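Thread: sanity check for a docking pose with zinc ion

Original post by kr_44:
Hi all, I'm comparing my docking run against an independent structure prediction. Below are the sequence and the ligand SMILES. Could someone generate the full complex and paste the C-alpha cells? I mainly care about where the ligand ends up relative to the chain.
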Amino acid sequence: MQFQVSNQAKLPTPFGDFCLQSFKEQQGALELDHLVVFTKELGESPLVRVHSECLTGDVFSSQKCDCGGELQMALERIGKEGGMLIYLRQEGRGIGLFNKINAYALQDQGYDTIEANEAIGFKDDERDYTIVKHIFTHYGIRKIRLLTNNPKKIEALKAFVEIKRCSILVPSNCHNHAYLQTKKLKMGHLL
Ligand SMILES: [Zn+2]
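Reply from moderator J.T.:
Ran it for you. Here is the predicted complex with zinc ion included:
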C-alpha cells in the first residue's frame, strides 16, 4: 500500500487539546485522506478509537445511527485519558456517501441496514483496515485499549497490535433502536 504522512498540527477542541496528522492512502486512482487525532502523551497502552466516517451522523447529528454519539464520547474519553482517534474516510462502511443514501432510501421502505446494502450490490461491511497498521507503526504503538463494540474490528486489528477492549455505549433512541438491534443480532456487536 502507498501512503503519505502530512506534517503535524494542533487541534484545540472542547474535549481537550489534540495533535492532528493526515495519512493519505492511494488505492489505485482513489485517494483517501484519513485523519489521526491524538494527545501529546500516548502512554504505553493508549485508548484508541478507529472511527469510520459517517457524514450524516458525525456532522448532521443523524439519529439513524450511533456514529455521532460514539465520536463525541470517544473524543471526550481520549481527551481525558490520552490516546488516539483514527478517522477513516470510508463512509457508509466503505460503500461511499452516494450509495449510503440509496441504501437509506431502501431502509425508509423497511429494509434493515444489511438487507439494504445487499439490495444495491454491496456486502454489509466493505471496510479495509490496512492503513491502520501503518498508522500504529508510524507512532510506535504495540498495545492499545480499543473503544469498540464490534468483534469484526477487534479481529481485523489484533493482527497489528495487542488489544484490550473497552466498550462504548451510546444511549439508543426511537430512530436507531432497530439499527442497533440489527448490529447486535445480525452483526454480533457487543451491545
Ligand atoms: Zn452513522
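The mean pLDDT is 92. Hope that helps with the comparison, let us know if your pose agrees.
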